[in-house]
Amino acid sequence: MKITVKQQVRRKGKAAQAYRKMGGKKRAFKGVQNKFRLEKPPSSQIRNISNMAECKRYEGFSIKNNAPIGITELYLQTNVAATFIPINPFYFMKSRLDLDKLNAVEGRDIFSKYLQTKLEIKYPESVFGPQGGTRPIEVVYGFCAPLNLTDRTTPTETDVSAQEVLDHVIEQVARDFDSINDTMDFDTRRRRSYNIIGRFKVKPNNNGLIPSPFRSDQAGGQIGALIGNRDVPPLRRNVKWPMMKKVRLIRSDNDPTERFIYPNQAYLPFLLLYNPDHANYSPNTTNPEGTLEVKQVKVRYNSAHWFNDF
Predict the structure, then answer these.
(1) Are 82 and 175 in contact (CB under 8 A)?
(2) CA–CA distance from 150 to each of 228, 236, 269 (Å)?
């Protein structure tokens, strides 16, 4: 038979007397809280701890001249369907020994917290774009298998170049996004070495565009000669990878002019733009007046990596 708290209070005894002295249930609970409450540290210690716990933001530096990479521009290729965007702030980091910056890495281990890439996609004008309907560009991102280099592999873990790291990422994913392969063929089943965590299509919204003006042709008396072009505004998207993991960095001494540290045993993030109708786009040309006629899809991107290294 269970005895409630009220029954215990009504009974006589040391337990009931101690309960009454504490002032009841609420007072007893507050007394236990005050007993185990820690003192608040001084503001100077809080300030020092917050500075230590603050994340470093790394947007990437050139591995040759240590110049900031910043916003990069490129045009989608017209001979292949997939165009890869290198995530340089995660692939190639700089040690404090090579780069005297506050956001350089101190030590060999970091805790990666956030990784984000901003994209801006600009379709060509209607007069230069492909004739007829085309499928929209698709953004695909995820993680691929790590390098896992050792002192017995080729290349070794301390003798790998930056281009070999990029080639490793492309080789893991490019085969499944190659438009040369016929979709009706039965491909050999194989184990996929990458994981797609997100994909979405970038569709231009033509509903808000102003119709092109018309004018009358005075020579032939015809009405409806088209002037002006439909200029699609740039489309902006953000891509984020879930990180929150510890990463061990290895130093590469392949080239004295290209010093960097890279994640050897961590899964590498990848980002590609898949254009299934790439053959319908024409390469950029220059008119007789010297002006560049943009006929390809233009992409601007910028990546940032937030981490702790203590």
Answers:
(1) no
(2) 60, 40, 21
Place of tokens 């209607």: 126
Q: 155: cis peptide before it, omega within 30°?
A: yes
Cα end-to-end distance, the chain, whole Å: 56
Strand pairing report for 137-144 and 194-202: antiparallel
- Mapped onto helix, strand or coil, the DSSP state of residue 235 is strand
CA 288 to chain centre: 40
Tens place of pLDDT per residue across the chain (310 aa): 555 555 554 555 555 555 555 555 555 555 555 666 667 777 777 665 655 567 888 988 877 777 788 899 999 988 888 999 999 999 999 888 887 777 889 888 999 999 999 999 998 876 676 766 678 899 999 999 999 999 999 999 999 999 999 999 999 998 888 765 556 677 777 788 999 999 999 987 766 565 544 444 444 444 444 444 557 788 999 999 999 899 999 999 888 777 899 999 999 999 999 998 887 888 887 777 777 778 888 999 999 999 988 7
pTM, 2 dp: 0.74
Calculate the alpha carbon distances from 62 to 59, 167, 172, 253 in Å.
10, 18, 25, 15
Note the residue count of the chain: 310
CA 46 – CA 40 distance, rounded (Å): 9
Token digits of residue 264: 């050897």
Q: Tokens for 160? A: 């790998």
The tokens for 282 are: 């024409």
CA distance linking residue 106 with residue 99, whole number of Å: 10
Strands of the chain, DSSP E: 56-58, 72-75, 82-84, 109-122, 137-144, 194-202, 214-217, 222-226, 235-255, 258-263, 268-274, 285-286, 292-293, 298-308
The CA distance from 136 to 76, in Å, is 13
